[in-house]
Amino acid sequence: MTTLSGGTADPAPGHGVDPWTLRTWMEAPERLTILDVRSPAEFQTVHVHGSYNIPLPLLGEHAAHVADRIDHRTVLVCQSGERAGDARRRLAAVGMGELHVLDGGLPAFERAGGEVVRGRARWALERQVRPVAGSLVTAGVLGSLWKRPAIALAGAIGAGLTVSALTDTCAMARLLSALPYNRTGEALGPARVLDALAGDNRRAER
Predict the structure, then answer these.
(1) What pLDDT is attached to residue 89?
(2) At what angle are helices 125-143 and 151-167 packed, to 10 degrees?
(3) 123 alpha carbon, distance to own chain's centre
(4) From first to last of its 206 residues, what are the pLDDT tens digits of the chain?
(5) Which of 20, 39, 74, 169 has a CA that sits 20 to 30 A from residue 157's CA?
(6) Within 10 Å of residue 199's Cβ, how many Cβ atoms?
């Protein structure tokens, strides 16, 4: 397979895939499914052309159903790779193969000249986590000047960030994803998403 500059021909299943290789794979879309596991609001802001949105919490509940509907190469996309890596582990646990995580997430794909679709601008979930965590730490430190126990808030946030790094998960991001800001006006039902994946798979088999 010919690749664009900087890409690799065919990474091993379950490994990361660089943006240039993904661009090459997109030239044969009938053998590729791209799953975006960010929130619906993030997806509407910008997403890889031709990708499907299955937010990580939804995918976690229906991983087996997703695996049943896709039997070819799948690339998982998020903002940084963290949520996509989590999604890969969940899908691999139910026996799904040919799984790849987009290296560098959506920003890297854009920088590589990949085709994206843009909508209403919103902050990515990872970006929302930083000011919230920073504000809570600052509040804990300042609050401790008046009430010594308030410093525990800063300690709790620091411990949470450490656990997040060690486990490659983020509880704060999950909480923020439930806010109205990170939701769209139309509910994203699992049946509609799974039906779309099934239809995509049937077209690939023709």
Answers:
(1) 93
(2) 150
(3) 14
(4) 333 434 444 444 447 999 999 999 999 888 899 999 998 888 888 999 999 999 888 888 889 988 888 888 999 999 889 899 999 999 999 999 899 999 999 999 999 999 999 876 665 655 556 666 666 666 656 666 666 666 766 666 666 656 565 555 566 666 666 656 566 544 455 566 666 666 555 555 54
(5) 39
(6) 11
Quickly tell me which residue has 């990580």 as its tokens: 56
Q: Report the predicted TM-score, pTM, of the whole model to 2 decimal places.
A: 0.63
Please report, to the nearest 10 degrees, the dihedral formed by the alpha carbons of residues 66, 105, 27, 98 taken in order.
-40
127 touches 117 (CB < 8 A): no
Q: What is the DSSP string of the chain?
A: ----TT--S-PPTTSEE-HHHHHHHTTSGGGEEEEE-S-HHHHHHEEETT-EE--HHHHHHSHHHHHHH--SEEEEE-SSSHHHHHHHHHHHHTT--SEEEETTHHHHHHHTT--EEE-S----HHHHHHHHHHHHHHHHHHHTTT-GGGHHHHHHHHHHHHHHHHHT--HHHHHHHTSGGGS-SS---HHHHHHHHHHHHHHHH-
* Residue 12 Cα distances to 25, 78, 80, 189, 194, angstroms: 14, 20, 20, 32, 26
